[in-house]
Amino acid sequence: MATRVTDQEAALKYRTLVEKLALLNGVSVRELDRRVRDCVLPANPMRLLGAAIKTERLVKHMTRRQLASRAGISLQLLTDLERGFLSDLRLAAFFNIAMALGVTAEYLARDWSEYERRLPRFLLPGRESNG
């Protein structure tokens, strides 16, 4: 089992992640960091992050309780995150969830708007199913 990420390690990983995403999206690190911190990225990134986490959890046939335990977070936090009810998430929790799922933080944080178009509608919190 992987060791949990500390807040200091999460801050370093966050900086690296922001640098990679800034390069991929053609914006400055400062601008991308501002967008992430102000949550002004298109399509509500926390809702889409929750949907991405839920999708990975279901693909891996894990229960919420199993993932919460492996990531060292509360079941309520994970439930709220997957349902799109959180407005923020500690970086350490984010990296620990990614490790518990066996994916990278970059994988979970990829282009959310493109990811949303590929998700089944029932996995997106706050969306009505049309079928």
Descriptors:
131 residues, mainly alpha, 434 Repressor (Amino-terminal Domain), 63% helix, globular, disordered C terminus
Structural shape? globular
Tally of DSSP helical segments: 8
Through-space gap between termini: 40 Å
Please outline the major beta sheet.
none
- Write down the CATH class: Mainly Alpha
CATH superfamily: lambda repressor-like DNA-binding domains
3D structure, described in words:
With 131 residues, this protein is an all-alpha fold. The chain has a single domain (7-119), classed as lambda repressor-like DNA-binding domains (434 Repressor (Amino-terminal Domain), Orthogonal Bundle). It is 63% helix and 0% strand. It has helices spanning 7-25, 29-38, 45-59, 64-71, 75-82, 91-101, 105-108, 112-118. The longest helix has 19 residues, at 7-25.
Q: Could you give a short description of this structure?
A:
This protein is an all-alpha fold.
